[in-house]
Amino acid sequence: MRVWYVSYGSNMQRRRLRYYLEGGRPKGGAHAHPGARDHSSPTGDAPLVLPGALYFAGESRQWTGGRAFYDPDGSGTVLARAYLVTEEQFADIRAQEPACYDRVLQVGERDGFPMYTFTTRARADAVRRAAPASAYLDTIRRGVQEAHGWDDEQAGRYLGACVETVAGVR
After folding, report:
1. Per-residue pLDDT tens over the stretch 33-54
2. Which domains does the chain have, with CATH numbers?
3. How far apart are CA 104 and CA 118, in angstroms?
């Protein structure tokens, strides 16, 4: 069965997602991904806007600096990209993420297939916020541009607001 994997972070950039499917070490990354059992490309993708908030917290071993998390109860909107993958690929993508991404959410349905993302179980107001590394933020920015067709200034304003107002980091 197919499902939509919804990314709101670095995997919005298609090239970055390929490392989760095919394996390898992405530019700027600290470690290599083993890849999925099925290396096939997604059979579709679509830009999404989710209700909620994007914030950065903790410490990423891959990027150093805060990790992106989705708070479905937060105020605002979150830019995302959905990829049509197999259930097995979704499980393999999730397995390559740190253990703190321990909450799977169904965020809707599209074309008869469920849409899933993952985030943390920790409440957004109970985690230590941290500024993301510039390379991580730049990868997310490129993903926003690629998925939503935004220019550099629009994407920069969106992410700047996430870092500044949602994360409380200036």
Report:
1. 999 999 999 999 999 999 999 9
2. 2-166 (3.10.490.10)
3. 4
